[in-house]
Amino acid sequence: MNIRAARREETRQKILDAARDCFCAGEFDTVSTREIAKRAGVAEGTIFNHFPTKEDLLICCVGQQMAEAIEKGLYTMDPEWCFVDKMMHVASYRFTQVGLNPGLWQVIMQQIVFSPRKGAVHAVMESSGLIAAIQALIEEAQLSGELNRDLPPVLIQKTLMSLFLFTIHEHFSTQNFDCEDMCGTLRELLEVQVKGIWASEPHLAA
């Protein structure tokens, strides 16, 4: 990387760090790009040289944070663990981040999860590497016979992501961001899904 590219990346990171701090302290609509620029020590126009919109900036903030959690989770994972344990290990790193920065997640829930912009949630999950990581774990579990091989991996992945978002929403509603509690909620949901909620054989009425 040449000096110019390095400086551009350094500026971009300063903007991301400043934006994350601002979003943690206020709602999306009340945080201005002028405030972010001042905290980052750059001109307001510089922000838009790196990010087309304020929402794109938020998506990058979240995506970068999620990518760090996923990388740590995958790097420290025991390959001998069962599927649920592997999923919970990755989720625990993300839940830890949520607990440390609940204000940022509040903005995420309001602006991204319930955003009118089509594909915002998918953009965050894809850019962070979360979708690819989960699909790889699903395919591995299907090959080993731990998960149903007849189900399309993408449908399993969507189900798992919905459980993760439900867990966050459930704890957000009670302002309980304890990592162990969040992990407990998600584990119960995952285990029900893996075991299956339908009986394996039909029961005849008495």
From TrEMBL:
UniProt keyword list: DNA-binding
Annotated ranges, domain HTH tetR-type: 9-69
DNA-binding region(s) from the entry: 32-51
Record SUPFAM superfamilies: Homeodomain-like, Tetracyclin repressor-like, C-terminal domain
PANTHER family named among the record's database cross-references: HTH-TYPE TRANSCRIPTIONAL REGULATOR RUTR (PTHR30055)
Record's protein name: TetR/AcrR family transcriptional regulator
Organism: Thalassospira indica
